[in-house]
Amino acid sequence: MYFVRLHYADVKENVIDENENILPKTSTARLEELQDKADDVQLVSSNNYDIGLIKELFCTAEQIEKFVHHGPIAHPTKFRKDALPKSFTHTLFHIAMPNVEKIPRDWLTWSETKNALYCFPCRLFSKMPETHRSALSLPTGYSKPKDNKWKKLYEKISHHQSSSGHKICYVEWRRLEENLRDNTTINFLLNDNIKTEVERWRQILRRVLDVILFLGERGLAFRGDSHLIGDPKNGNFLGIMELIGHYDSILHDHLEKVKASQQSHKRMQAHYLSNDIQNEFIQCCTDKVTDVILDEREKCKHFSMIVDATPDTAHIQQNVLF
Fold first, then answer.
1. 35 with 15: CB under 8 angstroms?
2. Which of 102, 97, 103, 133 is CA-nearest to residue 118?
3. String of DSSP letters for 16-50
4. pLDDT tens by residue, 235-275
5. How far from chain centre, in Å, is Cα 86?
6. How far is 36 from 217, CA to CA, in rounded Å?
7. What DSSP character marks residue 77?
8. For residues 123 and 53, is the Cβ–Cβ distance under 8 A?
9. For the residues 185-190, what does the mean pLDDT come to?
10. CA of 140: how far to CAs of 55, 159, 180, 211, in Å?
11. CB count, 10 Å around CB of 60?
12. Which single residue of 87, 140, 181, 303 could bond 81 by disulfide (Cβ 3.0 to 4.6 Å)?
């Protein structure tokens, strides 16, 4: 029984590592080291919003919007210890007021990848050169100092918080955050305008295609003697487009713009009503019909062909295969 108990104690005091042999460790220091490693494993994350992943000194507009939209990541529950040994204290994330009230320093954020502390708004919005920046706004962040003591950080944080550069960056952060929440950022407005414009042109092109199919099915002529909007001699295509425009606001507004540009002799960038566009649509329809016919022919085991022959003006026999 004594041997069994002794053997169990020996096994409990050994750590098996994949790259090492069984090493006897019985000291409390070793147990704390193992606990720190376990904490480090928990801290390692594939979080794409870790601000320590930004390598550039100046952030791009896309990076700023991405990180502001997500916000600072949550602080870890434990930090590494310094040489005293003392770990980074969570009290730095709050300001103790004289009335014992605690106000959070919401601008402080911890990077799990760099094991460093950052000022969230200054890291994103600061335009200062590297030599004039606080360590909290540098790509490396404020990591463990050379003397391995965190106590100097209290003084640095207070100094950084009272700086004018930090206040400006903090206001910019909160303003952009509010704009993102209300969908009033410049990028959002531009994207919204682009989507609206794309949908408008999609609706116009659908009407153009419908008129082309209508005329093509009936074998009617497309063009007339004029290409001007409002001219009675502008042909069937433009005439039907004008007719639809009387009952369609999208097409009516588009035709009015084209008509104004024609009257002022100012060329529009694109209006998709020209003869070339009509021919392109007709060619697209031809290619589509040809593909369908060829696909049906390949699927059929048997099919018939019609051959017609007639002499031309030079009395040469011309054959046509249907």
1. no
2. 133
3. --TTS--EE--SHHHHHHHHHHHHHHHH----TT-
4. 999 999 999 999 999 999 999 999 999 899 888 888 899 99
5. 41
6. 78
7. S
8. no
9. 72
10. 8, 19, 28, 63
11. 10
12. 87
Quote the CA–CA distance of 303 and 48 in Å, as a whole number. Answer: 60
Q: What sections of the chain are H helices per DSSP?
A: 2-12, 28-43, 61-70, 120-125, 152-161, 164-182, 186-218, 235-245, 249-263, 275-299
DSSP state of 75: P
- Please work out, in degrees rounded to the nearest 5, the angle formed at the alpha carbon of residue 69 by the alpha carbons of 133 and 200: 125
318: part of which helix (H) or strand (E)?
strand 317-321
Please name the residues in contact with 46: beta carbons below 8 A apart, sequence gap of 6 or more: none
pLDDT at residue 183, rounded to an integer: 74
For tokens 């600072």, name the residue.
72
CA distance 237 to 216: 10
Nearest residue to 73 via CA among 101, 102, 109: 109
Longest dimension (CA), the chain: 120
Alpha-carbon span 243 to 92, nearest angstrom: 72
Beta strand pairing call for 317-321 and 307-311: antiparallel
Q: Is 37 left (phi over 0), alpha (psi -120 to 50) or beta?
A: alpha
**Is the Cα torsion angle 96, 102, 106, 112 positive or negative in sign?**
positive
Closest CA to 143 of 130, 153, 133, 132: 153
Instruction: For residues 178 and 226, give the distance between their C-alpha atoms in angstroms, rounded to a whole number.
Output: 54
Q: No. of H helices and E strands in the chain?
A: 10, 8
In the beta sheet, which residues pair with residue 319? 309
What one-letter code names the amino acid at 32?
Answer: E
Residue type, 159: H
Tell me the average pLDDT across 94-100: 80
Dig out the tokens for 207 from the structure.
């009407």
pLDDT over 50 (residue 74): yes
pLDDT tens, position by position, 305-319: 788 888 888 888 888
Single-letter amino acid, residue 37: K
Across the strands, what pairs with 317?
Answer: 311
